[in-house]
Design brief:
By secondary structure, this protein is an all-alpha fold. It has one helix and no strands. Keywords: Signal.
């Protein structure tokens, strides 16, 4: 189990969720 890889994966997922929130807000505003 590579802890650094796991942390990078969680970090990537967090970024995707943040981007998703921004995208949803843009869609709702239109």
């Amino acid at each position: 189990m590579d802890v650094s890889r796991l942390s990078a994966g969680l970090y990537f997922i967090t970024i995707k969720l943040e981007n998703g929130k921004e995208t949803m807000q843009k869609i709702i505003k239109k």
